[in-house]
Amino acid sequence: MKLVVFVNEYKEPPILDRLKAEKFGIVFVQNGVYHTTLKKDGNSSPLLSKDAELYALSEDLESRGLSADKVDPKVKVINYEGLVDLIFNDYEKIIWL
Amino acid sequence: MKLVVFVNEYKEPPILDRLKAEKFGIVFVQNGVYHTTLKKDGNSSPLLSKDAELYALSEDLESRGLSADKVDPKVKVINYEGLVDLIFNDYEKIIWL
Amino acid sequence: MAKLTIGCFSSLVGSMTLDFAVKLAEAAVKKGHEVDLWLSGNATMLGKTRQSNFRDYSYLAGTVEELIKTGKFQVTICEACGKARGIDKEDVFEGVKIHSMDWYLASAFSADRVFHIGGE
Amino acid sequence: MAKLTIGCFSSLVGSMTLDFAVKLAEAAVKKGHEVDLWLSGNATMLGKTRQSNFRDYSYLAGTVEELIKTGKFQVTICEACGKARGIDKEDVFEGVKIHSMDWYLASAFSADRVFHIGGE
Amino acid sequence: MAIKKFAFIVEKLPYKSETSRLALTHAIASQTVEIYLEDGDNVEPVIAFIGDGVLNMLKGQKALDIYGVTSLEMHIKNALLLDLRVLVCKEDLDRYGLTEDDIVMDAEEIGGELTTEVVPYEKIHQEMESADHLMFF
Amino acid sequence: MAIKKFAFIVEKLPYKSETSRLALTHAIASQTVEIYLEDGDNVEPVIAFIGDGVLNMLKGQKALDIYGVTSLEMHIKNALLLDLRVLVCKEDLDRYGLTEDDIVMDAEEIGGELTTEVVPYEKIHQEMESADHLMFF
Fold first, then answer.
1. How far is A82 from chain E (nearest CA, A)?
2. How many Å apart are CA F88 and CA F94, to the nearest integer?
3. Which range marks the domain in which residue E36 is found?
4. pLDDT tens per residue, chain F (137 residues)?
5. What is residue F103's DSSP assignment?
6. Is the pTM of this model over 0.90?
7. Could you read off the pLDDT of D3-55 as tens digits, one per residue?
8. Which of B74, C77, C101, E21 is the most core-located residue (most Cβ within 10 A)?
9. Strands C73-78 and C34-39
10. What CATH number is associated with residue F97?
């Protein structure tokens, strides 16, 4: 299956490690976007090491004062328009964690 | 200060370790009551090892199908009436985490 | 007998937090204490008229009406939080007051205990 | 052009989740897609009349009204969730529909994608 | 003519929010969805509890007596009574030291015939794969 | 005649919920509380950001442009403008590698004179001890 998961909080969702799919994406939205820019005690978020395509929503980065140039290079920054295409073209099933 | 903290979720509140007081209490309410009865992978919740008076709200245990006789012996089970007395007689300041 | 001010910022149905606040208020009033309940954020919905008592949802309006009758209990919703949600004096049931945020601070000023429930 | 069904179960003001759902719906409609928005739980408040547009609170009613005018967007609130909160047909603004929960499943049935936001 | 399978996956704890309750009531709404669909079309629901969500299944919940609100236990029995499939993740029950004795396994007392299926996570993953749409609570 | 000190402690992240916003608006409401109090009585507020709450203080928040809602940055500047004391926990800024350059330190552009105090947690603990009432967001 082609599965895209939305991480909306700045913590590690307990169920994430179990989810699997042939094509697997993670979109960081809302407070999930902190995962893509912040280091805690010098460490990047463990979510950035997942075997998945990683995306962050630009509107939610900017709202919080996080500039796109600080986003980890593994993460692709997209906007709402890009998100619509992602949902229809690249994935079939969606999970909001 | 005499401080009582309310834990309402079944996770470890990040700030709890920093709070301190001469008299310190923790009341487990809502989904916090799982801390007082459940073991995860065989281990009791680390919150039960805090240096504090521990209480659990009986109404919230019973709503969830958790019987009072399964509550860890370190924890005193009280009801809403007991909670009112606790707030007025035993503590001065209250934090809902 | 003492005064307890409870501030609740959580949503009406869907979070049992408001149920907790109302049950605590009820227990305190039964023991002869005075209780002020401040409803901010989504908790302002507690004041809405015509809530239906369905078994699949929390129903607190009835308990609140009984508590108001005791004369030992005041419930006030945050004016701005209410209006943002389309809830103003036309939309609240009898006995529910509406004030700006300073009312909560004034209630806390004279309270023996403040139980502030800050929201999720 | 395809159909997206969004189910949102989070609260109106106080959780930016409903803002997310409305922005996503807006972006999809702009691209020519059809969007159904199902509001359950506290999200039913989005249909409430007379919401005030304050800068300190999210204000989504205006965007929703514009989206309804496009003819590509339907918004429906859960009947029971609404009534439990005192929100029925007298309380919703023009264009907002009210149905039982099976409406959401029927909308999902014919959708190309379902974006279900299950609540906190 | 099509039957579409919807998987209702419950991962959240009960009562703090309405989430798991709405999962059950929406799954049960599949009983009446036909009125909106064309002849022969229908929805086939499956409900699965994983992670902390398995705690929704505990027996003896007194939420109705105490808070005046239907317990999750009652919702689950209703689902079984209406022949909805209810799955529970075995690994997660094990993590909490829970067995079939601790959870709602049937709705016999109200005339239900179906029983809860305690299954490995892999089985729930397969249900998610074969479902047409996922609703994750 | 009494002055009562209220400590508004913000530990939650911004935007996901209204929590931190309501902390600021309620603290600012102390400016008008006198109308309800007797002569000479008043409330003295102090606002402190700890834990993840320090992220409310980041500069450059575009919430108003994007979501049409006042940013926390603007609320904090308003608080400083009105001479409310704003404290931030130094250890928590350090954890995220943040410095005074990254956060709102003053409201000079709108005529504010007070500046943010970056302080060790111990200082915030003392404020909690000396406060008459705690409001923890």
1. 22
2. 11
3. 3-132
4. 899 999 999 999 999 889 999 999 999 999 999 999 999 999 999 999 999 999 999 999 999 999 999 999 999 999 999 999 999 999 999 999 999 999 999 999 999 999 999 999 999 999 999 999 999 99
5. B
6. yes
7. 999 999 988 887 899 999 999 999 999 999 999 999 999 999 999 999 999 99
8. C77
9. parallel
10. 3.40.1260.10
Could you count the other beta carbons within 10 Å of the beta carbon of residue B79? Answer: 14
Collapse the DSSP code of D36 into the 3-class scheme (helix H, G, I; strand E, B; otherwise coil) and give the result. strand
Q: Does C52 touch chain D (CB under 8 A)?
A: yes
Dist. CA C93–CA C46, nearest whole Å: 9
Kindly state whether residue F128 falls inside one of the protein's structural domains: yes
Neighbours of chain B (3+ CB pairs under 8 A): C, E, F
E74 within a domain of the structure (yes/no): yes
Of the CA atoms within 13 Å of residue B93, those in its CB half-sphere come to 26
Distance from CA of C101 to the nearest CA of D (A): 13
Q: Which of residues 16-45 of C touch D (CB under 8 A)?
A: 41-42, 45
Torsion of CA B29, C119, E62, B87, to 10 degrees: 40
Judged by 3 or more CB pairs under 8 A, whether C touches A is no
The pair of structure tokens assigned to C85 is: 């949600």
- Report the domain count for chain B: 1
Contacting residues of A for D28, CB less than 8 Å apart: 84
**Domain for residue B17, yes or no?**
no
Say which residues have a Cβ less than 8 Å from residue F94's Cβ, sequence separation at least 6.
none
- A96 Cβ contact list (under 8 Å, min separation 6): A6, A8, D115, D116, D117, D118, E136
Q: The CATH number of the domain where B51 resides is what? A: 3.40.1260.10
Q: How many CA atoms lie within 13 A of F4 on its CB side?
A: 21
Residue F137 covered by a domain: no
CB E13 within 8 A of CB E53: yes
What range does the domain containing A53 cover?
Answer: 2-12+33-96
- Cβ-Cβ contacts under 8 Å for E87 (sequence gap 6 or more): E46, E47, E48, E49, E116, E117, E118, E119, E123, E124, E127
Q: How many domains does chain E have?
A: 1
Whether A18 maps to a domain, the answer reads no
What's the Rg (C-alpha) of chain E?
A: 15
Q: Where are the domains of chain C?
A: 3-111
Closest CA–CA distance from residue B68 to any residue of chain E (Å): 12
Residues 6+ apart with CB under 8 A from C1: C32, C33, C34
Structure-block tokens of residue A16: 């994430």
Rounded (10°) angle between helices E19-28 and E72-81: 20
CATH class of D3-111: alpha beta
Q: Residue E137 falls within a domain, yes or no?
A: no
In angstroms, the CA E59 to CA E109 distance is 14
Shortest Cα distance, chain D CAs vs residue E40, angstroms: 13
- Sign, CA torsion E18/A55/D55/C102: positive
For an interface test with E, give the residue of C18, C19, C52, C120 to mutate (most E CBs within 10 A). Answer: C19
Total length of chain F:
137
Beta bridge partners of C7: C38, C116
The answer for residues whose C-beta is within 8 angstroms of residue C106's C-beta and 6 or more apart is: F33, F36, F37, F43
